[in-house]
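Much of the work behind modern protein science is quiet bookkeeping, done one molecule at a time. The fold becomes a row of whole numbers, each drawn from a learned catalogue of backbone shapes. The protein below has been through that process, and both of its lines are reproduced in full.
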Amino acid sequence: RRVGLSSSYPLFAPERSPGGGDSDGASCALASREAHAAALDESGGEGHGAQPLLFYDGGQAAARAAEPGHLMPLLERRRLMPRAITERQHHADLQHGELGEDADLDDHDLHVSGMDWCPLTNMLVTASHDRNAFVWNWDETESRWKPSLVILRIDRAALDVKWSPDGQKFAVASGAKCVPICHYEEDNDWWVSKMVKKHKSTVTSLSWHPCSQLIATGSTDFKCRVISAFVSAVDGEQVSGPFPDPIPFGDVYAEFTCQGWVQSVCWSPSGTSLAYCGQDSSLQVVTFGGGEPVQQTIRFNQLPLTSLEFLSDTCLVGAGHDMNPILFSGGGNGWAFNRFVDEKKEKKAEASTGGGVSAARARFQAMSKRGDEGSKTEDLFTQHESAITCIQLIGEIGGSSFSKFSTSACDGRLVVWDLPALGIDTAALGI
């Protein structure tokens, strides 16, 4: 296997102790500040900023990469590139537990803000604030990752990138109020883009419909849009998904509102439901079928969500600034909050430790972590200690039901959640 790793970091994945708030079924790999500092000291201070760490699950067909500050686990059979937050990206060989640098993909000049892997073609795509994108293909004869030119044609930073389910196209979210839909031109050996220009502000998130000819976008103009992404050069017969009639490329099938910036969008496995979350601490679920789409708004008291994924057609998981994944369940009778995944365990009362310097230190720590003074004996019970920025499903590629997923956050932690191991009734959730 090939996995992403910066050579200046050691390989480790310690389990959190029960006293640290770890619950059964949730394993946590922690990239600590101490290890970060030690690695930089060993490398003479020549680190590349927030470099990626590797977390490898030995007997599984999944390799997970994580970086301090912004993490994104990716499933892959053979090779993987981490979603790096610096301009340099690394590969490494894993042989007999030893790691060695394999390739240094440094074509980007600025912050790499998006990356996706296509399981059908084993190709990687990266997007950056330098307004460029590259498609990386593993060349067996030269034993290296070779970049392909992408004609992106944007004048603002690229923020996210996603492959279509069929692997023929990818879309790029950008600050240029547009979405390039890119496909490969074999005659010229490059990737060309067709531009979607229906947004009035920055596009923050993307999600492809399972048919690969529709794309949902979230934007800071408080809108979620479903747009035709049919490209005659690579797509076969045009289909319209849940809509009655197909429309030309770039036209809007439907537009839905939100009371805040749209942070994340996602389609259900069957493509009959679309969910998006906003900065106003709301979740919107749109159900298609038969007549007009039915939109439902779920408002909650927690902090806003930043990432969404469907575990099945009747179960949705979201996570964000509250540091705790939330399950929502739904169906014919509508959608509703179900439960938190990371539940607080009851602890025995502990004797007071007194005041003085230790009490002052505990108070400042609470202010730093949560923005409040808190009590001197109170600790965070959640696995994460900062905003969750990414959710990834773990399971069979192209599956329609997932009982395991991972979350990664700004605290440098990657946590794998196994719902049955946590005692959650997956059958009741339709998983």
